[in-house]
Amino acid sequence: MKNVSFYILSSFFLFIFGFVMIIFGFYFLYNDIIFLFDWEFLSLNSMLMTLTLIFDWMSMFFCGCVFIISSMVVMYSHSYMIGDIYKVRFLYLVLMFIFSMFMLIMSPNMISILIGWDGLGLVSYCLVIYFQNYKSHSAGMLTILTNRIGDVAILLSISWMMNYGSWHYFYYLGIYSSWGFYLFVLLVLAAFTKSAQIPFSSWLPAAMAAPTPVSALVHSSTLVTAGVYLLIRFSDFLYMYNCSFFLVISLMTMFMSGLGANFEFDLKKIIALSTLSQLGLMMTILFLGFPYLSYFHLLTHAFFKALLFLCAGLIIHVMNDTQDIRFMGGLSHQLPVTITCFCISNLSLCGFPYLSGFYSKDLILEVMTFSGHNFFIYFIMYFSVGLTVSYSVRLAYYSLVVGTNSYSCQSYFEDKFMNLSMIFLVILSILSGSIISWLIFMTPVFLMMPFFMSMMSFIFIVGGVIVGHELSIFYYDVNSYYLNNYVLSSFLGSMWFMPSLSTFFLTSNSLNYSYYINNNLEVGWGELIFSKLSFIYLVILSKLSQLYYYNNLKIYMISFFLLVFIFTLY
């Protein structure tokens, strides 16, 4: 009973903190207030090492959203982890994870950002390997090694900032410098590793080995959004340089994840790939030059993605921990509340009108149309939106209509704590888009475009619905195109071979290379040159020294006569 109350108490305090921060965010936004708390703990020549906290409307809103989502996840975990013997340890890890995200959000100083950045990486590793098995350990190792690349980039950017005299990011906004380009590249590299953009995308689906409440927290508002938030903070500095290459990379991430989700049958991996798709959308609109739109979609996405994971967690929980969507079907009869919440979050992900996702995605597409980029950017963006609708329809179709429902004899239940957290997130998934858009954008955003151009999003959405339905009712046979062209379907369905390239490709090459070095150097030429020759040389030296010690009188006499002979010559 003590452990149960600790979960509920933590959820209550997190909710209160989040609500208070959102209220203060309203106040700071309308009065244009920024508070900076600076603690100087070391002075090195002219450099001041400080721990800085910034309180403005952007950090307060985001931190409030993180705390509210975390409170719902902790309440959900009270029932989800009830059979686990280490549930108190799990709660401590989740609270450490939330604190690390708080430090990252509230820090304008790169040194204090590093505290939250490293904290997220280390605690996420502990959470991914929470279940003790080989798959979880492999996923955790891939996660932490990929994130360490971003940590090294942050450390290098800290050292590079010593050229300028300060680690506060607001000293660099709007200032162009040829040296600043290296800082720009390091920041983008750090953000790409944390937000899983190409070529660092393989760790995101692998991190699904963690418990589902952790996945809801990681993939909605904490770990994967840290890179996007960092670039939003540095956006005025980034726009001093050419972002076209990174724009294409983030757009291809969105496209790749949408394709992969349409070929996937693992429920959690489909939702993880949808997260990757939305991260690509945030990065794309950020590199197009609209950081506030990226921040807007970051907040709206956090609510419906957390809801989507919580619903998926309950479905997996009652289906004997099976994540294959082909075993589902007719779940609306067994889990009516959960499937209702699941469909609402799915529709919000698609951008269904007047849900939260609609307000951000529709505005992003319209603004992107006016950005003046070429047809490639325009087409891939709209096609990726169609893929989002496609895998959402496919997922809903498999869970509601198609499938054998092989677990119909299982005991289905909907816990009150789980339902309460999901229903609260449903309300936020419906209302947050309109409320945040009215707050962030003081004046209504009004864009005029031709009729056919404004209908492009509707056309691709309808196309995505049709493709998703066709993929749901598609049956493989011997003459199937995808079976006869296995390489193509495997390439499209496995994130363009990125998991293999990030794990087995590197491991096999390094092992082959070490085998080659061992055979040719260590037991080959290296053995001959560095071991045997040095041994022979030492043997000769020891024999000479032994000869000297055993015949020292003779050597002295010979040396004396040689010296006398030399002196007589002169």
TrEMBL record:
Where does the source fall among the domains of life? Eukaryota
Identify its membrane topology class.
Answer: Multi-pass membrane protein
Asked whether the keyword Transmembrane is assigned, the reply is: yes
Record field: transmembrane: 7-30, 50-76, 88-105, 111-130, 142-163, 169-192, 204-232, 238-258, 270-290, 296-316, 337-355, 375-397, 417-441, 447-469, 481-503, 523-541, 553-569
Where in or outside the cell?
A: Mitochondrion inner membrane
What's the short name of a Pfam family annotated to this entry?
Proton_antipo_M
Catalyzed chemical reaction(s): a ubiquinone + NADH + 5 H(+)(in) = a ubiquinol + NAD(+) + 4 H(+)(out)
Which ranges carry the NADH dehydrogenase subunit 5 C-terminal domain? 391-569
Q: Which InterPro entries match?
A: NADH_DH_su5_C (IPR010934), ND/Mrp_TM (IPR001750), NU5C-like (IPR003945)
> Start and end of every NADH:quinone oxidoreductase/Mrp antiporter transmembrane domain?
107-384
* Chief localization: mitochondrion
Q: Which Gene Ontology CC terms are recorded? A: mitochondrial inner membrane
Residue span of the signal peptide, if any?
none
The processes (GO biological process) annotated in the record are:
ATP synthesis coupled electron transport; electron transport coupled proton transport
- Quote the function comment for this protein: Core subunit of the mitochondrial membrane respiratory chain NADH dehydrogenase (Complex I) that is believed to belong to the minimal assembly required for catalysis. Complex I functions in the transfer of electrons from NADH to the respiratory chain. The immediate electron acceptor for the enzyme is believed to be ubiquinone.
Q: What is this protein called?
A: NADH-ubiquinone oxidoreductase chain 5
- What species is this protein from? Limnogonus poissoni
Its lineage reads: Eukaryota, Metazoa, Ecdysozoa, Arthropoda, Hexapoda
